[in-house]
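user: can you give me the structure for this one chain? tokens are fine.
assistant: on it. calling the predictor now.
[tool input]
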Amino acid sequence: MAINLKARSDAYNAWLTANNINPADVPSDDGATPTELTLATSTDGVRVIRYTAFLRNEDGHKYHDPATNDAAQEQRETPLLVPPPDGLHVPEEEGPAT
């Protein structure tokens, strides 16, 4: 399946991939910056990435959510395996992640 990631940087895509996040699943307004992605510390002290991801059907396609009239999405959290590279700003959440 061909993925058009627009202007999103190779470094950013590599960082997402290294953290087991598919870059094509992370929404962005400008094709380069995720709309909702932050670093946080979970309640048990683990560093995590919290992000919004597109949902996909059994065929691997994004699908419409009639409740929001947009592509279906959900909030996800994954352990931070690789820190962001220098020059890549990722916002920090205040307090522990839930």
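assistant: here you go. The chain has one domain: 10-87. The helical segments are 10-18.
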